[in-house]
User: Fold these one by one.
Assistant:
Number 1:
Amino acid sequence: MSLLDVLKTNSMVMIPERYKQIPEEKMIARIKEIKKEFGERLLIPGHHYQKDEVIQFADLTGDSLQLSQESAKNRKAEHIVFCGVHFMAETADMLTGDDQKVYLPDMRAGCSMADMADIQQTERAWEHLTSQFGDTIIPLTYVNSTAAIKAFVGKHGGATVTSSNAKEIVKWAFQQKQRILFLPDQHLGRNTAYDLGIPLDQMAVWNPISDELEYEGSKLMDLKVLLWKGHCSVHEKFTMKNIEHIRKTKPDMAILVHPECTHEVVIHSDFAGSTKYIIDKIENAPSGSQWAIGTEMNLVNRLIQQHPDKEIVSLNPFMCPCLTMNRIDLAHLLWSLEEIAENGAGVNQIKVPKEVTRDAVTALNRMLVVG
């Protein structure tokens, strides 16, 4: 189910107008008060791309899957207020116990990439592709996908992947079947497969709007990698012009990007890796080193603040933060916490159906066993 479907089928509660009038210092004081009152019964995971005003209250910071796994380990937390986007809160709900409640402070905090593959499109694509290629395809999905897509993959023998373990999971997949269907981010799929030695002319893109494979140069049966036509709206905005500008104006500056960037940007950069890889790379870099980073702006700004001994810039100087992630702000966080404190339950609780959870967790567990 996409975020749009969620908003249509659930009575989404909007933040009361009064929260928009509360001074920042009062919001901060009240959040601190509630956190102190609940202690270990309350957990606030915060994704790396969150605003500083929110991340300051995070009990955990990290990537989406890491935050869900750490939340699942914390059996003392009765209320988990997930500061991320919808698919992340879904994963947290699936991995945590039945006695734990997961909330998303703003239900409009979605992921455009995850919403580029809905379950109806995926089932239609699978029927079409298996009619062409037979039982030769195994589906993989990036964790940046809906619970329904994870469940589809689990049901059909596949696994989830992260940007950190994608190579290991893709290698495993090719030991199972001749071909992979990679959802929903074509760029991570293409960059990963290319790194493993699969040429671009053995890759095709499935267009879920026209219901057809897009490819050039290969015979149909020579195709090995079937990429979903999806992308990250943030990482796709880093371009070759950005790289050429850095090379011209800062020839000694290293370019470090996320593998959700386009293939040409990744192959012309000096380094490419997951968010954790980017953070670790900067932390371990020598003082005085120069870096142009191609990832979400809140994280880049945080790295700039944390490493004043290094010259760090965004690869795209006109980049803006992830807009859907940044729907969660101080006011929404306070509202979510006050509802828990005053009513014993928060608004916008995330509940994944048990049958979806079962198959989605199967896909997640396959990944964890392999990678």
Note: The longest strand covers residues 137-142.
Number 2:
Amino acid sequence: MFAGIGGFREGLRRAGGFECVGHCEQDEHAERSYRVLFDTRGEWFCEDIRKADAGSMPGFELLCGGFPCQSFSIAGSRHGFADPRGTLFFELARVAETRKPQYLL
């Protein structure tokens, strides 16, 4: 979730033994870069996690999500949960609650 340009994916690729089954990314520039860097053919994709049906996602054991930090960071607005980006954490929690992966990162 919140794939950016693939930091989690690349780290797990380097660690070995992981297969990515899908990703979610709203920023069109990051999404374009992600697809150039990684072969995503046949993988699940959702642009907006708020609209994702967790039940329709493929099976997975590890859920990764680097939700946007600008809502909480001194580099951003620091409006916390009052900033719509700050509430995306709860979407990650919603998916985890529904799918109950063995691991959450």
Note: The radius of gyration is 14 Å.
